[in-house]
């Protein structure tokens, strides 16, 4: 959040619900009421009205938040107005409940995000806001910075965000928070028993690697695992061109856990945090894995590769097995894993799967509170047979095309045995069209719900 100490120069900014418009208008001076009537201000979501003073300056500004129905259907109602306001500092006036205030303040911050790495034009000036005393501005800024990191990583094209560049961003994050890191590179993956990560990434000229970060020495053990497939061609089961266009976002799970890790570390949680990112490029060359190959995982389970385009679950399997060996109190996996998840819930709602009912319930409650939409899907035991091909222990791509998100989650769950609380998120990581506080492009999903839910689950 943009903060300033020059409070005396700030312009009053009012957030107005449509149902409160009449009472709010009645409290304004007569000339303000006349101006509002002239302009027909109706407090629609994101509607802005600028009220001049007697000298032609700006007396106050107001942003509409719409009706209660509008606010259910649309997140961050006021956020879209930031770009419409003159670039000056504002003092917020509101009658919002704490969670509503946090949502709008976060929306204000997120609305300032611009991905400008490849743009030569100057960044446009934006309005600044003085955070109300009732608001934990440090927390809001940590969340916004985590989301900005996630968006930046996803938005960066694969030419500039391969495994090596993702490693550099990972190390930068660790250095920022004085975390310890370890990187296992190339053939060392085989030497350290991470064969699936190696198999997926070995065909690329950009070496596969496992990124490992540790932070904190006391408290519950929290491990985050994120899929870092920096570009997914589909391998020998080559994707059609139309399906390859967004594959720079196939490291969205890695971006999401890195953003969440920043939130946790910036807020100084008393936890033992570990972040694991298998960073690879699924490419084609003479040594690419083939359909029909059988791979032996870190856990010893054999996997028949029936589709080289189902590579995300392979790299995650080794990383999850490694994480599970330490029996963390909570193990979270995030990945842009299946198209089936998007068919089921669309791009805006991220399905998740969990072995722990308390964690799942707390996540659902937190999701509603912080307006980060997620939805639990079942680890349906009857579908276990679908991932057992007969020739090997597991099938990475069951035939039939049914229940694809569930069978992928069941596959990953086979590599988690010791961890008492496990959750897997099948995110999209992309905003298809611009919305308030969410420009088209890379997007975090599930991280804010996790950030809100984990303190309760962990007893922090």
TrEMBL record:
Pfam families: Peptidase_M17, Peptidase_M17_N_1. Residues 307-314 form the Cytosol aminopeptidase domain. One of its GO terms (molecular function) is metalloaminopeptidase activity. The keyword DNA-binding does not apply. The keyword Transport does not apply. GO terms for biological process: proteolysis. GO terms for cellular component: cytoplasm. It comes from the Bacteria. PROSITE patterns: CYTOSOL_AP. InterPro entries: Leucine_aapep/pepB, Macro_dom-like, Peptidase_M17_C, Peptidase_M17_N_1. Keywords: Aminopeptidase, Hydrolase, Manganese, Protease. Belongs to the peptidase M17 family. PANTHER family: LEUCINE AMINOPEPTIDASE-RELATED, PEPTIDASE B. This is Leucyl aminopeptidase family protein.
């Amino acid at each position: 959040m943009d903060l300033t100490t020059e409070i005396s120069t700030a312009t009053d900014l009012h957030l107005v619900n449509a149902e409160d418009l009449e009472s709010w208008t009645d409290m304004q001076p007569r000339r303000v009421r006349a101006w509002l009537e002239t302009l027909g201000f109706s407090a629609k979501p994101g509607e802005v009205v600028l009220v001049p003073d007697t000298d032609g300056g700006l007396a106050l500004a107001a942003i509409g938040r719409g009706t209660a129905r509008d606010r259910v259907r649309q997140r961050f109602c006021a956020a879209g107005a930031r770009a419409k306001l003159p670039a000056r500092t504002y003092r917020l006036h509101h009658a919002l409940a704490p969670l509503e205030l946090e949502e709008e303040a976060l929306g204000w911050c997120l609305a300032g995000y611009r991905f400008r790495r490849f743009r030569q034009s100057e960044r446009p000036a934006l309005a600044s806001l003085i955070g109300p005393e009732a608001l934990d501005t440090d927390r809001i800024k940590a969340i916004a910075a985590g989301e900005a990191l996630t968006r930046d990583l996803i938005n960066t094209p694969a030419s500039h965000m391969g495994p090596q560049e993702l490693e550099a961003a990972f190390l930068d994050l660790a250095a920022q928070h004085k975390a310890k890191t370890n990187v296992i590179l190339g053939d060392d993956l085989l030497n350290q028993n991470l064969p699936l990560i190696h198999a997926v990434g070995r065909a690329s000229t950009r070496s596969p690697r496992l990124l490992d970060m540790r932070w904190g020495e006391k408290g519950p053990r929290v491990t985050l695992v994120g899929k870092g497939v920096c570009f997914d061609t589909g391998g020998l089961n080559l994707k059609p061109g139309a399906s390859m266009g967004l594959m720079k976002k196939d490291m969205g799970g890695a971006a999401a856990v890195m953003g969440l890790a920043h939130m946790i570390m910036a807020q100084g949680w008393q936890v033992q945090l570990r972040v694991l990112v298998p960073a690879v490029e699924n490419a084609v060359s003479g040594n690419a894995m083939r359909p029909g190959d059988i791979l032996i995982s870190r856990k010893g389970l054999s996997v028949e590769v029936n589709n080289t385009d189902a590579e995300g679950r392979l790299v995650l399997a080794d990383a999850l097995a490694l994480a599970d060996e330490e029996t963390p109190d909570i193990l979270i996996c995030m990945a842009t894993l299946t198209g089936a998840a998007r068919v089921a819930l669309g791009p805006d709602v991220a399905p998740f799967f969990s072995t722990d009912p308390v964690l799942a319930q707390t996540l659902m409650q937190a999701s509603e509170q912080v307006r980060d939409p997620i939805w639990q899907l079942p680890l349906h035991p009857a579908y276990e047979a679908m991932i057992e091909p007969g020739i090997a222990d597991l099938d990475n791509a069951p035939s039939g095309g049914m229940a694809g998100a569930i069978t992928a989650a069941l596959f990953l769950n086979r590599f988690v045995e010791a961890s008492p609380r496990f959750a897997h998120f099948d995110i999209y990581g992309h905003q298809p069209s611009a919305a308030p506080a969410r420009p088209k492009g890379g997007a975090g999903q599930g991280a804010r719900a996790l950030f809100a839910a984990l303190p309760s689950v962990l007893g922090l």
